Amino acid sequence: MRARLIHTSAFAAFAAFLACAGAAQASGSITCHSADDNVVIDLLVGRAEAITILRTIIIIGDKAWSSDPANAPGTPIIAAQAFEDSTRLLVDFGLEAAGAVVARLRAVNASEGADFVSGGVFSFKDIGAWPVDCSERG
Fold first, then answer.
1. Strands 63-66 and 75-76
2. DSSP string of the chain, one letter each residue
3. How many angstroms separate the most distant Cα atoms in the chain?
């Protein structure tokens, strides 16, 4: 009986671990773009208790930046920090870890019933600033 109790407890603990691990690995995407689609910010995100940026692709005109240049060509860039809650999305981007912030995304989220919209501004140092629509979520 004791062996069965230990086995059952171990199984329950393992099942709980898998449930937590699955939630931590939940991922999706956020795409922001300017009205003329000249600027696109594509983020692959993980969502657990906090947002984690897993991949970043930024396109401005004919220039591209990517956190995964082997699979998405572009100048290397990282998401230095990110925050999202039900009302806003804030992301700072840098060219290297612990380096200066070179780009910022600031969006405000709103929802009513089944409707969801998100919009704000994206700026890139020495290049420009644009209003962006970040409503596209996957």
1. parallel
2. -HHHHHHHHHHHHHHHHHHHHHHHT-EEEEEEE-TTSSEEEEEEEEESSSEEEEEEEEEETTEEEES-TTTS-SEE-EEEEEEE-SSEEEEEEESSTT--EEEEEEEEEEEETTEEEEEEEEEETTTEEEEEEEEEE-
3. 71
19-70: pLDDT as tens digits: 444 444 578 999 999 999 999 999 999 988 889 999 999 999 999 999 999 9
Entry pTM: 0.79
pLDDT by residue (tens digit) across 83-125? 999 999 999 999 987 789 999 999 999 999 999 999 999 999 9
